[in-house]
Design goal:
The protein is an alpha+beta fold. The protein has a domain at about 1-110: Immunoglobulins (Immunoglobulin-like). The protein contains 2 helices and 11 strands, in the order βββββββββββαα. The chain has helices at about 130-180, 240-245, and strands spanning about 1-5, 5-10, 15-20, 30-40, 45-50, 55-60, 65-70, 70-75, 85-95, 100, 105-110. The strands form 2 sheets. Strands 2, 4, 5, 9, 10 and 11 form a 6-stranded mixed β-sheet that branches. A hairpin with a 6-residue loop joins strand 4 (about 30-40) and strand 5 (about 45-50).
Length: about 250
């Protein structure tokens, strides 16, 4: 019975794999069983697992034995530092009572798991550029989304300010209409100012030069009438009013 590898060094949390090879010679049809032993600090060996010739696999929480006759694969799962020690295989044959054959010893050394500092960046595996491409595309999409949201917000704000300005102007015009009863067409047009003007003229009364009045006769009261016609009043704009004043 032989076992290999002779020495195995692994960190905590991993899995150790050993192989035991048996040779039965001409008694290949004999029944047997393979035991797995652990020996710590050269103390008495302790049996940890067992598998028979006709059983394909046996598994516990800590060990897994797989039958590949004439080779048996032994796995030690979820390694801890207290799993360090010497291991060997023991072959027990049933055609000869109490016949046990032991293999040589293999040494297992379990080291502490490497500690990663918070500042240490994990090493990127080579040959996986797709992860970088995905991250870059995701960043571009996020940036584009932020730009679209900013543009949409700006347009909405501008549109609402325009509506509020129009609503304020409309309310001002409606208030003037209700108070003065005047319909305003456009706020930009100058207001129409009506100024009453008076044109002055000379009114002359003519007498009949040939009518003689006796010297001593009482004068007769005489009334004459005149018609005064004023020109039609026209709306005076600020320009005409200024000219009129000049």
């Amino acid at each position: 019975v032989t076992i290999f590898p002779a020495v195995l060094t692994l960190p905590e949390g991993g899995k150790a794999t050993f192989f035991c090879n048996i040779s039965m010679g001409t008694d290949s049809g004999s029944d047997y069983s393979l035991n797995w032993y652990k020996e710590t600090n050269h103390s008495q060996a302790q049996k940890t697992a067992e598998i028979s010739r006709y059983k394909p696999m046996t598994e516990t929480e800590k060990y897994r034995l797989i039958n590949h006759t004439p080779v048996f694969e032994i796995e030690i799962l979820n390694l801890h530092q207290n799993d360090s020690g010497s291991y060997y295989c023991g072959l027990i044959t049933f055609f000869e009572p109490d016949k046990v054959m032991e293999s040589n010893r293999s040494q297992l050394i379990v080291t502490a798991a490497p500690q990663m500092n918070a500042t240490d960046e994990p090493e990127m595996e080579e040959g996986t550029p797709s992860e970088h491409i995905k991250a870059m595309l995701l960043g571009i999409l996020l940036l584009a989304g932020v730009v679209v949201l900013l543009i949409f917000g700006y347009l909405t704000f501008t549109y609402r300010r325009g509506e509020q300005a129009c609503a304020g102007d409309g309310g001002y015009l409606r208030m003037l209409n209700h108070h003065d009863g005047v319909t305003l067409q456009k706020e930009e047009q100058p207001p129409v100012v009506i100024i009453s003007t008076v044109d002055y003229g000379v009114l002359e009364f003519q007498r009949d030069q040939y009518s003689l009045v006796p010297h001593k006769t009482q004068p007769v009261e005489q009334t004459e009438y005149a018609t005064i016609i004023f020109p039609e009043e026209k709306p005076v704009t600020p320009e005409r009013g200024k000219k009129h004043l000049d």
